[in-house]
Amino acid sequence: MTDSASTPEVLGPPRPVLIEVNTKPVKIDGPTATGLQVKEAAIDQGVKIQLDFHLTMLGEDGKEDPVADNEIVALRYGQKFFAVDGDDNS
Fold first, then answer.
1. Model confidence pTM above 0.70
2. Does residue 48 sit in helix, strand or coil?
3. Does residue 8 surpass a pLDDT of 50?
């Protein structure tokens, strides 16, 4: 058995994925990222959010699913995320 067979690279090397956070384009290394990494990338690219904001991901069914900071999500081109202040009562 070779080393590559014993340690397969399941998801491949990181690749940039263009997603949206609060309708703003954000480029992030994929194919996966944590909720915290999504927020950090958005902030680094000028999206006006903070790290303590609550993050949700728009699912294919149109529902918003919460994403925890330590939760790993699969990223796809155009994936929509929303980050809102946890104190937002609107």
1. yes
2. coil
3. no
